[in-house]
């Protein structure tokens, strides 16, 4: 390593994650540790006046404290805490930030939708398995929002942050998450997704452009498909096809919440929002003529780590560039 490590904590709507990373002699990011806690701070995010609940705030602070303890073992020279859609949209987001500061001594930076999308883009350019791609889409589906990006010649040509997170849509359209997913909820989510995507994002890249999927939904879908054939996430195929997502949706959507919670590869804490998440990704794929999503774990945290770490003097991967 030619740099000391930094720590990044991403306070998302559905989960809170830590990444501790350093920069190698070749300029690439070296991952020292990573961990995710499903805290679901975003309950109530779909309300007309969204507020973080007291249980959500307490769960979020506890998760942050646990992840800070993980990071402390690596003695990071800098620790960055960021919050996205849930805190950004909540009326009491400033109160949450104040309570995190009081409990941990760390300030929380609230990212705008544009900042979030661009930092996700920066993270993707750090993924060594994607170094061959020039023109590609990126879709990062979280609990509160969907980030959509188009890269042309590895520069961001278009970025949009849409309120299409799976927690938000489940609260808005699913009357009883404990029951099988209804045809009505499916149709309403698809119409809503199509309307927002069509109004803010263009599928203007060449037909050969790849579509990268990041975030929990693609990760879990890949884990479920891998578990079906007895392989771990790491050893499973690094992509999921539209046909596979559709089959997965038909299967999971027909199950009750209790039945979904028993499926290998599907964390019980995500079982209630998984049908809505799949419906969203399927709609995006159909709208954009996408046959499969190539999976990457290099998203927001990696972009923040790249931003916080000094650039290598030895060259390395191409630096992130945005044309916006």
Short characterization:
With 324 residues, the chain is of the alpha/beta class. The protein has two domains: 6-114, 2-Layer Sandwich (Nucleotidyltransferase, domain 5); 131-295, Nucleotidyltransferase, domain 5 (2-Layer Sandwich).
CATH homologous superfamily of the largest domain - what is it? Exopolyphosphatase. Domain 2
Q: How is the biggest beta sheet arranged?
A: 7 strands, mixed
Distance between the termini: 32 Å
Let me know the average pLDDT: 92
Strand content: 15-25%
Q: How many domains would you count in the coordinates?
A: 2
C-alpha Rg (nearest Å): 19 Å
Question: Strand order of the main beta sheet, please?
Answer: 10-11-9-6-7-8-12
Number of helices: 11
Fraction of residues in helix: 25-40%
**Which CATH architecture of the largest domain is right?**
2-Layer Sandwich
Strand pairing plus helix content: what structural class?
alpha/beta
Q: Given this structure, which CATH class of the largest domain is correct? A: Alpha Beta
What is the overall silhouette?
A: globular
What sequence of helices (H) and strands (E) makes up the elements?
EEEHEHHEHEEEHHEHEHHHEHE
């Amino acid at each position: 390593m030619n740099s000391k490590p930094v720590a990044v904590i991403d306070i998302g709507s559905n989960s809170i994650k830590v990444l501790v990373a350093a920069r190698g002699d070749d300029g690439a990011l070296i991952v020292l540790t990573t961990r995710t806690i499903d805290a679901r701070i975003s309950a109530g995010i779909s309300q007309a006046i969204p507020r973080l609940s007291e249980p959500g705030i307490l769960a979020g602070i506890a998760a942050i404290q646990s992840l800070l303890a993980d990071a402390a073992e690596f003695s990071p020279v800098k620790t960055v805490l960021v919050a996205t859609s849930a805190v950004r949209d909540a009326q009491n987001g400033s109160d949450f930030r104040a309570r995190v500061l009081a409990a941990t001594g760390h300030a929380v930076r609230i990212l705008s939708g544009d900042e979030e999308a661009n930092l996700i883009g920066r993270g993707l350019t750090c993924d060594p398995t994607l170094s061959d791609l020039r023109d590609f889409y990126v879709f990062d589906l979280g609990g509160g929002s969907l980030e959509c990006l188009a890269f042309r010649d590895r520069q961001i040509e278009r970025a949009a942050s849409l309120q299409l997170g799976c927690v938000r849509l489940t609260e808005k359209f699913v009357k009883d998450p404990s029951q099988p997913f209804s045809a009505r909820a499916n149709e309403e989510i698809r119409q809503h997704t199509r309307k927002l995507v069509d109004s803010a994002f263009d599928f203007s890249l060449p037909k050969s452009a790849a579509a990268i999927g990041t975030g929990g939904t693609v990760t879990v879908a890949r884990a479920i498909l891998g578990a079906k054939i007895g392989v771990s996430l790491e050893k499973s195929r690094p992509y999921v096809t539209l046909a596979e997502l559709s089959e997965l949706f038909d299967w999971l959507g027909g199950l009750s919440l209790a039945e979904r919670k028993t499926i290998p590869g599907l964390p019980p804490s995500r079982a209630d929002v998984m049908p809505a998440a799949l419906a969203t990704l399927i709609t995006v794929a159909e709208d954009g003529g996408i046959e499969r999503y190539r999976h990457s774990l290099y998203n927001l945290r990696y972009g923040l780590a790249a931003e916080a770490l000094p650039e290598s003097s030895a060259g390395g991967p191409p630096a992130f560039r945005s044309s916006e």
